Amino acid sequence: MKKVAVAFVLVLASLALVACGGSSSSSSSESTGGETTSEGSAGGGGEAEGGSAGSAAALEIETASTGLAYSSKSATAKAGNVTVNFTNGQPLAHDVAIEDSGGVVVGQTELIAEGSDSAEFELKPGTYHYFCTVPGHREAGMEGTLTVK
Ligand SMILES: [Cu+2]
Questions:
Q1: Is there a single domain that holds both residue 67 and residue 4?
Q2: What is the span of the domain harbouring residue 123?
Q3: Which residues pair with 94 in a beta bridge?
Q4: What is the whole-number distance in angstroms between the Cα of residue 65 and the centre of ligand 1?
Q5: Number of domains present in the structure of the chain
Q6: pLDDT on residue 67
Q7: How many Å lie between the centroid of ligand 1 and the Cα of residue 66?
Q8: What global pTM score does this model have?
Q9: Interval between CA 62 and ligand 1 midpoint (Å)
Q10: 119 and 63, same structural domain?
């Protein structure tokens, strides 16, 4: 009977170990979640979406509320397939073209007014510029720097 009692205690002890293991594994998954959150804030929501849809990433570019300018003078994107979502809230037509460091235009969105358009780009790491192709707009300041990592 004593052996049975010892065996019972061992079973209880192993159950306690399993319980400990369970709680430690759940706390480690919480820390993994924290890492994912910090990655998300660095790379933007597009990174999480890209994980489920391959390597696609989205870059949002919009015009300033008034004037010949975009809302931001700089943008960053991950190398690979990048979808540029361009939003123009102005009644004046604008577009977004992207040129590489050699000045070669690699693609552009439609010319639109008060609307939005998307275009896909295949971007390698490097420095690009985005600008509006309407004559005079880029010269007036409607451009920005795109850094692809
Ligand atoms: Cu323009």
A1: no
A2: 49-148
A3: 112
A4: 12
A5: 2
A6: 96
A7: 11
A8: 0.64
A9: 11
A10: yes
